[in-house]
């Protein structure tokens, strides 16, 4: 019997009506340099997953230099120690290791997946450490990657979905760091010194959390964590934090685009990772638009009217208030009708909340399926690194189903009334002009 | 266009011995009297299970004028049956804590749920029910066809590179059904009727045209019994004759151009290439898979190294070849030029990479690297129940078996540098080449005259 299986203990809690709950044994310690470590042992497969998260996301981009965080992350494995980018790529491939990660608003992540055998693991961790600790940021590579980033940006600015998403971000966050989007000017303004400084000040021991999942002993996990933290910059930029998010005024934005579909995004700043309304809002949202095929928005917009292929709502919890967003795409000529349906559905939900039956279904889904969200090392890594980065309680996964089980309709309704506010809601519509013109009998200019 | 089947082959054999799973007897396979094939793989790491039903029917089985019907029916499979109301399927799976969805390819249509393992019997029952008792109204069809049209607008019509790929396929094939898009031409969707979907269902959704694949924390003997109880009473159907449609010989290069709102030009080049039929003799397939990996199998492979990072002719470029499937195969390379470069430059640069291998071959280090990555990739794949079930099911659905892997491994391990050079010489003449190019049109130039005000 594997360890992963034994830690996913199934407990019957009849008095609470809880059919099952999953628990994960997360071991936590701090390295001698002060980096936080979160470890789950699992020897079911000969695989080791590592992830180091730094408080080095795009919210820390200096004014006028949006993209610095993402360029810094992108350049980490394009030169490190005495290796150039090709040598790094070849060495990873030689041992079958995979480097991953990326940049969000709050964090920059660097992850490694490797076979856990001594030879592969030792080589992979050594390379991983070189990349994290001694990136060289070659000037020529920076110039090339900046120009690729500008090309990507220009291409993406022709896509209605990307335009909508940028306008949404700018509109709900204004001048808050979460609201900055990359431009050609902001990318061009970035120098090698900026990158070097950003790495020195943000990829530091104090801003790091380390997640380790898989086939290593506790002693080996400790050695690995120590070796990662030992070589990280010691610089202390603890003062660089993200300010609270102010609420925007309601606004409607319409951007023309010759696409067939209009891309619609509606929303406002939502919740933080440790928000007191986290559970009523997230579980309530399952009923509104988070629950795949069974949500109200899906039924009203897609099933009953055939207005859209994709329609959803979500809360994305961040260090400070992440977005609450409703999204759909529909042909331009019916965007007005679709917006009315969304508006009506949302208002009714805020006013009346979910029915008892709907809340029970949301509870069933969340509680019964909790073990499924943790049935692979990959999924586990996602949760454990999140818990570590945001310093959530170690029993967060264990508490989750209990909190959900205790929720009432009144609590969900109350939270939505207080937190989802039409007076602060922004609505973005981009494109659909191709279909509107077609429906109006006008020839499209491009034909 | 991935190396999935390459990695699969190599890996299983090479990984035996370093994995603590009971690989010897696992997966387990049986076939019911009515022809339904059942494959169960026990993976006891977590109390979770994936249930899939694969139908051996995809868009390649459609007829002209009804393109997209395989995918439309996939959508309608979530409507009601004679026993359950519309929406009940999703609702029940959600109440179990599970997730469900489906996908349609050129070769097959597959449905899946991931649920807590103690609920496996329930989802087997739901799948059995909709294999034979689907019932949707004309009204439900008329709503769902609009959903599918929105899906086409989202995935294809407003995505210039998807339009390029659609045209590439329509250009590379004149007779073979792979020339039709899976989602269907919009003009065909406009005239599709509910009865088209019903006829499709009646014709193809039968136990003798399906494979059940279950991977997770289950006992295979129990699962076999549950599948027998749920599906065993169904009668097999006489399936239509399926003629092998062979694409006639191509007599020279073909070209397609798509003009759409974009900033960067883009080009995709496709050569006709062999499909694996004879596991033992079709050695070119394995050599072409290795060639694709040498060109674009990792960040340090030749195309990203030389075309994107070295010469900087392209901002992005790649190569892909699968070589397994029910129909014809293509070897595809693609890319977008950097500022100041053109699609011609990108094409020349990609062709030069193939020419270099034709003339100088590949190194032993490159061969070793392809194999090492493949070995690791196969082990990593075992972390995902869904990934394992998809591997087993996709092979079964195209008429192969997970059991074929042993031979595929041997053949792949046997690929030499000379063989790679040899296929680089033989398969890349412009006699069998099709090229599709995206010519960007500025957004302003395509804007209709109507003013766009606030809604």
Describe this structure in words.
The complex is a heterodimer of chains A (447) and B (455). Chain A is 43% helix and 17% strand. Chain A is of the alpha+beta class and 447 residues long. Chain A has two domains: 27-230, Metalloenzyme, LuxS/M16 peptidase-like (Cytochrome Bc1 Complex, Chain A, domain 1, 2-Layer Sandwich), CATH 3.30.830.10; 251-440, Metalloenzyme, LuxS/M16 peptidase-like (Cytochrome Bc1 Complex, Chain A, domain 1, 2-Layer Sandwich). In chain A, the strands form three sheets. Chain A has a six-stranded mixed β-sheet with strand order 1-2-8-3-7-6, sandwiched between helices. In chain A, a hairpin with a 4-residue loop joins strand 6 and strand 7. The longest helix of chain A has 18 residues, at 139-156. Chain A is globular. With 455 residues, chain B is an alpha+beta fold. In chain B, 43% of the residues lie in helices and 18% in strands. Chain B has 17 helices and eleven strands. In chain B, the strands form two sheets. A six-stranded mixed β-sheet of chain B has the order 1-2-6-3-5-4, with helices on both faces. In chain B, strands 7-11-8-10-9 form a five-stranded mixed β-sheet, sandwiched between helices. In chain B, helix 1 crosses helix 13, helix 2 crosses helix 8 (194-204) and helix 12 packs across helix 16.
């Amino acid at each position: 019997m594997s360890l992963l299986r034994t830690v996913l203990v199934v407990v019957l809690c009849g008095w609470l009506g809880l059919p099952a709950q999953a628990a994960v044994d997360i071991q936590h310690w701090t390295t001698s340099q002060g980096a936080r470590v979160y470890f789950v042992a699992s020897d079911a497969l000969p695989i080791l997953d590592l992830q180091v998260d730094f408080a080095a996301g795009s919210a820390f981009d200096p004014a006028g230099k949006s993209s610095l965080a993402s360029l810094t992350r992108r350049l980490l494995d394009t030169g490190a120690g005495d290796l150039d980018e090709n040598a790094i790529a070849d060495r990873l491939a030689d041992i079958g290791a995979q480097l991953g990660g990326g940049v969000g608003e709050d964090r920059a992540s660097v992850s490694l997946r490797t076979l856990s055998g001594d030879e592969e693991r030792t080589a992979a961790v050594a390379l991983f450490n070189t990349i994290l600790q001694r990136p060289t940021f070659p000037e020529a590579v920076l110039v090339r990657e900046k120009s690729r980033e500008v090309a990507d940006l220009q291409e993406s600015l022709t896509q209605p979905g990307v335009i909508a998403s940028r306008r949404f971000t700018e509109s709900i966050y204004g001048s808050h760091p979460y609201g900055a989007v990359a431009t050609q000017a902001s990318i061009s303004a970035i120098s090698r010194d900026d990158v070097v400084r950003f790495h020195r000040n943000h990829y530091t021991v104090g801003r790091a959390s380390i997640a380790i999942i898989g086939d290593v002993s506790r002693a080996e996990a400790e050695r690995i964590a120590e070796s990662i933290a030992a070589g990280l910059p010691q610089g202390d930029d603890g003062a660089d934090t993200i300010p609270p998010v102010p609420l925007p005024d309601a606004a409607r934005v319409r951007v023309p685009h010759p696409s067939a579909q209009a891309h619609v995004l509606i929303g406002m700043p939502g919740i933080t990772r440790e928000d007191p309304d986290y559970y009523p809002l997230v579980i309530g949202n399952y009923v509104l638009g988070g629950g795949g095929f069974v949500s109200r928005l899906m039924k009203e917009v897609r099933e009953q009217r055939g207005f859209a292929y994709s329609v959803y709502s979500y809360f994305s919890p961040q260090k400070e208030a992440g977005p609450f967003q409703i999204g759909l795409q529909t042909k331009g000529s019916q965007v007005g009708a679709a917006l009315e349906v969304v508006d009506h559905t949302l208002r009714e939900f805020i006013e009346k909340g979910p029915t008892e039956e709907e809340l029970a279904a949301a509870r069933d889904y969340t509680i019964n399926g909790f073990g499924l969200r943790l049935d692979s090392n990959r999924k586990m890594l996602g949760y454990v690194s999140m818990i570590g980065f945001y310093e959530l309680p170690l029993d967060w996964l264990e508490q989750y189903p209990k909190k959900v089980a205790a929720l009432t309709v009144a609590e969900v309704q109350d939270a939505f009334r207080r937190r989802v506010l039409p007076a602060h809601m922004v609505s973005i519509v981009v494109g659909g002009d191709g279909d509107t013109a077609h429906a109006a009998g006008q020839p499209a200019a491009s034909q | 266009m991935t190396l999935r089947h390459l990695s699969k082959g190599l890996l299983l054999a090479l990984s035996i011995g370093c994995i603590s799973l009971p690989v010897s007897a696992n997966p387990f396979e049986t076939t019911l009297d009515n022809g339904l094939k059942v494959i169960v793989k026990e993976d006891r790491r977590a109390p979770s299970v994936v249930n899939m039903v694969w139908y051996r029917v995809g868009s390649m089985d459609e007829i002209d004028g009804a393109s997209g019907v395989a995918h439309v029916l996939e959508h309608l499979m979530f409507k009601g049956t004679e026993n359950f109301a519309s929406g009940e399927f999703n609702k029940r799976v959600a109440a179990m804590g599970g997730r469900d969805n489906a996908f349609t390819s050129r070769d097959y249509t597959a449905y899946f749920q991931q649920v807590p393992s103690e609920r496996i019997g329930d989802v087997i029952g739901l799948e059995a029910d909709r294999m034979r008792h689907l019932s949707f109204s004309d009204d439900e069809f008329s709503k769902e066809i609009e959903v599918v049209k929105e899906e086409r607008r989202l995935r294809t019509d407003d995505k210039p590179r998807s339009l390029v790929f659609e045209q590439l396929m329509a250009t590379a094939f004149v007779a073979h059904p792979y020339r039709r898009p899976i989602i269907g031409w919009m003009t065909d969707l406009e005239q599709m009727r509910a009865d088209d979907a019903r006829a499709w269902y009646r014709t193809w959704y039968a136990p003798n045209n399906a494979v059940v694949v279950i991977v997770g924390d289950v006992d295979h003997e129990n699962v076999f019994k549950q599948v027998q109880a749920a599906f065993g009473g169904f009668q097999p159907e006489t399936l239509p004759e399926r003629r092998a449609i062979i694409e006639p010989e191509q007599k020279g290069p073909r070209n397609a151009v798509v003009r759409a709102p974009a900033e960067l030009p883009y080009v995709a080049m496709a050569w006709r290439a062999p499909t694996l039929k004879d596991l033992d003799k079709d050695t070119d397939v394995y050599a072409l898979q290795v060639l694709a990996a040498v060109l674009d199998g990792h960040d340090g492979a030749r195309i990203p190294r030389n075309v994107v990072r070295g010469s900087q002719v392209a901002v992005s470029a790649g190569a892909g070849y699968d070589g397994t499937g029910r129909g014809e195969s293509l070897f595809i390379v693609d890319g977008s030029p950097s500022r100041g470069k053109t699609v011609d430059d990108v094409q020349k640069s990609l062709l030069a990479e193939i020419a270099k291998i034709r003339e100088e071959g590949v190194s032993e280090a490159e061969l070793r690297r392809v194999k090492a990555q493949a070995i690791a990739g196969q082990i990593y794949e075992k972390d995902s129940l869904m990934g394992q079930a998809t591997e087993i099911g996709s092979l079964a659905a195209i008429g192969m078996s997970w059991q074929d892997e042993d031979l595929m491994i041997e053949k792949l391990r046997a690929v030499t540098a000379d063989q790679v050079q040899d296929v680089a010489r033989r398969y890349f003449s412009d006699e069998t080449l099709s090229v599709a190019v995206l010519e960007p049109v500025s957004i302003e130039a395509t804007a209709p005259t109507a003013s766009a005000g606030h809604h």
